[in-house]
């Protein structure tokens, strides 16, 4: 759904979750110029914009997850591409997700209940579920049941990842029941222009995504979630026009990737994906990558190079991301029609539904190609290739490889799916700092050890060492 992002003065509308919880200290930190009674539409816009910027931005996308899945690589300042991070490197997803996402959305739910507007509540539950999923996908055990209310829980407990996913599924089911296209109208929705019918599809699409997150651990429960959606008569995102995404505008409301490339030049396309797209004669290559200025060739950079080795390749002899992705108006995609079709194909392959896995897989590839304006002739040629055909004997390989391509640019989601499906098979960087391994999680923000020591210690005791190489509950193999 193509919508316009209307600039707002967000700073006076955010509910700042400061480090205090005591009433007197909270009162001391009240901004006398800020609105004491935030309007629901402002809370909604702020939560969408801040979370999308963080999800699509530098710290959690370009400087970490896109490197881990070898969509992008570093040509300068290569430490992140070698998995060398400080304990503050992964702080943005946590602090912005909780303080400017969960806190605002919890308040929106309270306002919705007070005003009797179930549609605001349903939308807030969908967005909150997405944020909680980003947090647990990245870190594992995270605050969920006590999150976002510092007046009651200054040091919220960390819930086990299984419990977080199950809580998200419960919240999304509640959201689906709350959303009513014939109910009260909402404002401030910069994803679907206040269309509740599309939010219902978004909610179900996220339910399917989370059901598959737990499918290797809890197959019966995952199957039941999908059956519940069918029993309810629910529908999913059904076209590229219904992709859940924030459509950016010109500066100062431009895409974060565009904003970075205005002043920096240290990212390139990974050799891994360039080689794969080239081998498949994939028509998305000129969309995903630009030709190197000097050679006019598509030349990716190997991941994890030493700084000197990367610099020797030359800034003008290597490929930047394609113009589509560095344009100011490039959208921050939350969930696409292509991903939804891949998810339905996997659900069918697992025996969770009676749908045709091969047909849905083919439709997913087509949806991804159409998303980037590829011609129908080129789509037919690509889908006819033997190395693109669906392999029923190894659905994880077929879906994993093609989903990895389709999720280009969506670093956090691609990172989660790569860990879950175990495809494509990626080669760790030779100069990587993890002894031949690729990260499988984010480490907790360093200040959690001092701000919430008991919660942090309990999470580490339950989950394992707070390291990039500690596998999470959903990551079975």
Automatic annotation (TrEMBL):
Keywords, in A-Z order: Signal
Organism: Pedobacter cryoconitis
Gene3D superfamilies according to UniProt: 1.25.40.390
Organism classification: Bacteria, Pseudomonadati, Bacteroidota, Sphingobacteriia, Sphingobacteriales
Matching SUPFAM superfamilies: TPR-like (SSF48452)
Pfam families, alphabetized: SusD-like_2
First and last residue of the signal peptide: 1-22
Membrane spanning residue stretches: none
Stated name of the protein: SusD-like starch-binding protein associating with outer membrane
């Amino acid at each position: 759904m193509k919508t316009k992002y209307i600039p707002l003065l967000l700073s006076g509308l955010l509910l700042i979750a400061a480090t205090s919880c005591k009433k007197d200290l909270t009162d001391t930190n009240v901004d006398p110029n800020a609105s004491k009674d935030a309007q629901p539409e402002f809370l909604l816009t702020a939560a969408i914009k801040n979370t999308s910027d963080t999800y699509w931005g530098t710290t959690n996308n370009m400087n970490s997850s896109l490197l881990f899945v070898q969509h992008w690589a570093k040509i300068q300042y290569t430490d992140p591409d070698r998995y060398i991070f400080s304990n503050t490197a992964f702080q943005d997803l946590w602090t912005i997700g909780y303080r400017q996402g969960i806190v605002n959305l919890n308040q929106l739910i309270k306002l919705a209940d007070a005003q009797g507007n179930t549609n605001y509540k349903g939308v807030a539950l969908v967005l909150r579920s997405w944020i909680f999923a980003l947090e647990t996908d990245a870190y594992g055990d995270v605050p969920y049941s006590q999150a976002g209310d510092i007046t009651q829980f200054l040091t919220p407990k960390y819930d086990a990842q299984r419990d977080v996913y199950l809580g998200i599924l419960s919240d999304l089911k509640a959201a689906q029941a709350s959303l009513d296209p014939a109910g009260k109208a909402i404002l401030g929705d910069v994803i679907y222009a206040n269309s509740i019918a599309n939010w219902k599809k978004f909610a179900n699409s996220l339910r399917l995504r989370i059901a598959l997150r737990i499918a290797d651990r809890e197959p019966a429960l995952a199957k039941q979630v999908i059956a519940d959606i069918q029993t309810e008569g629910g529908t999913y995102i059904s076209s590229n026009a219904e992709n859940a995404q924030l459509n950016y505008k010109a500066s100062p409301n431009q895409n974060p990737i565009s904003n970075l490339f205005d002043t920096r030049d240290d990212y390139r396309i990974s050799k891994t994906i360039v080689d794969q797209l080239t081998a498949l004669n994939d028509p998305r290559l000129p969309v995903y990558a630009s030709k190197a200025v000097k050679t006019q060739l598509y030349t990716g950079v190997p991941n994890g190079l030493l700084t000197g080795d990367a610099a020797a390749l030359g800034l003008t002899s290597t490929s930047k991301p394609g113009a589509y992705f560095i344009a100011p108006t490039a959208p921050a995609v939350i969930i696409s029609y292509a991903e939804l079709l891949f998810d339905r194909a996997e659900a069918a392959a697992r025996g969770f539904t009676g749908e045709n896995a091969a047909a849905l897989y083919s439709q997913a590839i087509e949806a991804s190609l159409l998303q980037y304006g590829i011609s129908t002739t080129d789509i037919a040629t690509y889908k006819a290739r033997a190395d693109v055909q669906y392999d029923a004997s190894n659905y994880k390989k077929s879906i994993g490889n093609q989903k990895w391509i389709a999720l280009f640019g969506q670093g956090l989601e691609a990172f989660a799916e790569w860990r879950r499906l175990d495809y494509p098979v990626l080669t760790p960087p030779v100069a990587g700092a993890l002894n031949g391994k690729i990260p499988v999680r984010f480490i907790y923000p360093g200040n959690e050890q001092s701000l919430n020591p008991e919660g942090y210690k309990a999470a580490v005791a339950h989950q394992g060492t707070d390291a990039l190489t500690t596998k999470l509950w959903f990551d079975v193999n």
